[in-house]
Automatic annotation (TrEMBL):
Residues 8-126 form the Glycosyltransferase 2-like domain. SUPFAM superfamilies: Nucleotide-diphospho-sugar transferases (SSF53448). It comes from Christiangramia oceanisediminis. It comes from the Bacteria. This is Glycosyltransferase family 2 protein.
């Protein structure tokens, strides 16, 4: 039995394909939904069918991080000891939060805990979650599973996507919410960087599961020159150069000349596609300055909430 107050925060945007299954899986808990100005009737559907859900409607799409910050702030004002961030396309397996709260209480050094993410049909790991696990070559999880060793309750991980995060109140009081630099994607990387910087850990709880019906193709690299290509490029720059754990932010001003030189090289190689792409990248990075964000994020406080 959970004695601490836990509130689930779900951000929705045109979530009709998933929202019923998501909310039904969360029905044993207090739920706050922040709707990012959906155009498919998500808000009206929630109001009509889920009267116990607290719905906060936005007049425009604020993005994933900013909308979550609104829900997190509301949950904390209502006295939440833990906030569980859940994607609109993710579903809780029975008993998962009870197990995770128990693990979190025994391991207060963790600022973010994630369950295992299964595919929507429950058959195998969700691809993006699997990608992050495979990046952690030294945390021992795969070795323990393959060698049939007894697994630990938690395995440390540098970053795990924010489809299902259990976050104790003290994390928000120390670090704050999501960094407004990010609209969609990258905000979870940045948050995990800040968690580690402030002395907490990020971990995966191995005997807890959610299903994530993502069909997520974010790690498929978009076609060069497209809008998504440049959005992903800028997100990667932000993740790498706004990292509170490094001094790389001091070198961001050099990126403009770097991409200009790359453009010139491409021109001499008659690679006009890369020439145009590198000039566009130069335009994007010129004027970037993360010094103020780094200074703020290195200080303790409930930033952005």
């Amino acid at each position: 039995m959970i004695t601490q107050k836990i509130i689930i925060v779900i951000v929705t945007y045109n979530g009709m394909p998933w929202i019923d299954k998501c909310l039904r899986s969360s029905s044993n808990f207090k739920v706050i939904v922040v709707d990012n100005c959906s155009s498919d009737g998500t808000s009206d559907h929630i109001k009509s069918n889920y009267p116990d859900v607290e719905l906060i409607q936005q007049q425009k799409n604020l993005g994933f991080g900013a909308a979550n910050n609104i829900g997190i702030s509301k949950a904390l004002r209502e006295g939440a000891d833990f906030v569980f961030l859940l994607n609109q396309d993710a579903y809780l397996e029975e008993g998962v939060l009870e197990k995770m709260i128990d693990v979190a209480k025994k391991n207060p050094e963790y600022g973010v805990l994630s369950p295992i993410h299964l595919k929507g049909n429950g058959r195998g790991l969700e691809p993006v979650f699997s990608y992050y696990l495979h990046k952690e070559n030294d945390n021992g999880l795969f070795s323990d599973l393959i060698l049939q060793k007894s697994t630990k309750d938690i395995y440390d991980i540098s970053m795990v996507n924010a489809a299902a995060w259990l976050i104790p109140r003290k994390t928000f009081e120390t670090i704050g919410g999501f960094q407004p630099l990010f609209f969609l994607y990258g905000e979870d990387d940045n948050y995990c960087q800040r968690v580690w910087y402030h002395g907490f850990k990020v971990g995966v709880v191995v005997n807890c599961f959610i299903r994530h019906d993502s069909n997520n193709n974010y790690h498929i690299y978009p076609v060069k020159g497209t809008k998504k290509y440049y959005e992903k490029f800028l997100n990667r720059i932000k993740v790498d150069y706004a990292d509170v754990n490094s001094e790389r932010y001091k070198r961001v001003k050099n990126l403009g000349s770097f991409y200009f030189k790359k453009a010139i090289v491409s021109l001499f190689q008659n690679d006009f596609e890369s020439f145009k792409a590198n000039l566009k990248k130069r335009e994007i990075v010129n004027g970037l300055d993360f010094a103020k964000q780094i200074e703020k994020d290195r200080a303790k406080g409930m930033h952005y909430l």
